[in-house]
Design goal:
The protein has 18 helices and 9 strands. The chain is α/β, with parallel strands linked by helices and about 425 residues long. The protein folds into 2 domains: about 170 residues, D-Maltodextrin-Binding Protein, domain 2; about 210 residues, Periplasmic binding protein-like II (D-Maltodextrin-Binding Protein, domain 2, 3-Layer(aba) Sandwich). It is globular.
Length: about 425
């Protein structure tokens, strides 16, 4: 009888201990569109976090990128979405916050590690609430074939005049196409063209915010001048650039046929694999010697908390860790060209990625001019900027006419510009 009682007590104790252990273990599920990041999360991020935070487990469950918005919205509406939500920048995530599906994270301790520019992609229009912790941005500039530069005796240009002098030297030599970019797909003419060089003219955040407030117009010199520079690019893009697609441009550069590539830093990993020559990078040249420089350091990805999560404290623990220097360095090194948006000093192993991120200490950061607020109406300013940039480079529209067309379209629906 005593043995039976003791056995029962031991069995009950075993079940009780197991119950306590399971009660302490919390599993957080992360929704994302970055299915190409799966191994990075499984092999690096999750083990590092779990080692430092016993009792909290992570599951990274990505969807196909093109299906993410629809899948996520369905899950949120059904109450089956994960605890943590990977956030695209601006309106898509803002809509989730306004619907009460993303929690306000303004008071999260880790948010103090991010600037207003870094948080802009995941904040309300008035900046009073931030609902996702910024993870990474992409930076714009120019990647070049360092061996071609050495062969031709040219150096990285600092000013616009030096930039065109370099292009002329490359063109006159004839060995390389000076610059690899086409206008067939249009978006790259705006993204790697207009919004790459433009911040040096409209002074980054100063001009972008002035456009939102209505204090500046797209017909102002600061907004037309980048088109005047783009119009000069046509002479250096090679024969048939009008029909050249984005993959065509990538191939021209990585095969060594073009010397310069107007770039987003997301190209770094692919170019490292495909190009068999040494590469360098320089930021957008300033209009005049001594001018302050500005870079497009564009918000790309963040992480928010499902407002309906049953594990808010564990989720906040993870989100604070996402704001830490450990995560910043790990993520930026795992994905060269996607840079942590935190204020922490980090060391990058990839030399090209380190070059891009070093510009933050030399230049003022801003985001693409059309992405916040200004593309909510019809006509869509972002799509119109794609078309205008391509048209100007082709010579089918003058810089002044492009500015006037864009201004007319924006003013037709956006009250501060009326």
């Amino acid at each position: 009888m005593k043995k039976h009682t003791l056995g029962s007590a031991l069995l009950a104790s075993t079940f009780l201990s197991a119950g306590l252990a399971s009660a302490q273990d919390v599993t957080l599920t992360i929704e994302s569109w970055r299915n190409d990041d799966l191994l990075i999360w499984q092999d690096q991020i999750i083990p590092a976090f779990e080692a430092a935070h016993p009792g909290i487990k992570l599951q990274f469950t990505p969807s196909a990128p093109a299906e993410y918005n629809a899948v996520l919205n369905s899950k949120l509406d059904a109450g089956s979405a994960g605890d943590l939500i990977t956030c695209r920048p601006f309106d898509a995530s803002l809509a989730l916050y306004e619907a009460g599906q993303l929690a306000d994270l303004s008071d999260l301790d880790g948010m103090s590690n991010f600037s207003d520019v870094a948080k802009s992609g995941w904040s309300t229009d008035d900046g009073s609430a931030t609902f996702c912790v910024p993870m990474a941005s992409v930076i714009h500039g120019f990647i070049y074939n360092a061996e071609a530069f050495e062969e031709l005796g040219i150096e990285e240009p600092k000013t616009v005049d030096e930039f065109f002098s370099v292009l002329n030297t490359i063109k006159e030599d004839g060995t390389y196409i000076p610059m690899a970019m086409g206008t067939n797909d249009q978006w790259e003419a705006a993204t790697m063209g207009y919004n790459n060089i433009g911040p040096n003219y409209w002074k980054g955040e100063e001009g972008r915010l002035a456009l939102i407030s209505g204090e500046q117009k797209l017909t102002d010199e600061a907004w037309v001048a980048p088109y005047e520079q783009l119009a000069r690019w046509a002479d250096y893009l090679g024969d048939g650039f009008e029909a050249q697609t984005y993959p065509d441009s990538q191939n021209l550069f990585t095969l060594g046929r073009a010397a310069i590539y107007p770039a987003g830093s997301w190209e770094i990993a692919g170019f490292n694999t495909q190009a068999d020559f040494e590469m360098g990078a320089f930021p957008p040249p300033v209009p005049n010697e001594g001018d302050e420089c500005y870079i497009s350091d564009h918000t790309d990805i963040a992480l928010g908390m499902n407002a309906a999560t049953e594990n808010p404290e564990a989720a906040k623990t993870f989100l604070n860790w996402v704001g830490s220097p450990e995560f910043a360095e790990m993520y930026s090194n795992a994905l060269p060209g996607f840079f942590s948006l935190s204020s922490h000093e980090i060391s990058l192993e990839d030399p090209l990625a380190q070059e891009f991120v070093s510009w933050r200490s030399e230049c003022n950061s801003t985001i693409r001019s059309t992405y916040q607020i200004l593309s909510r109406g019809t006509p869509n300013l972002e799509n119109d900027t794609w078309n205008a940039s391509a048209q100007v480079i082709r010579g089918a529209e003058s810089p002044a006419d492009a500015g006037a067309r864009l201004q007319e379209g924006l003013a037709s629906w956006y009250e501060p510009q009326q």
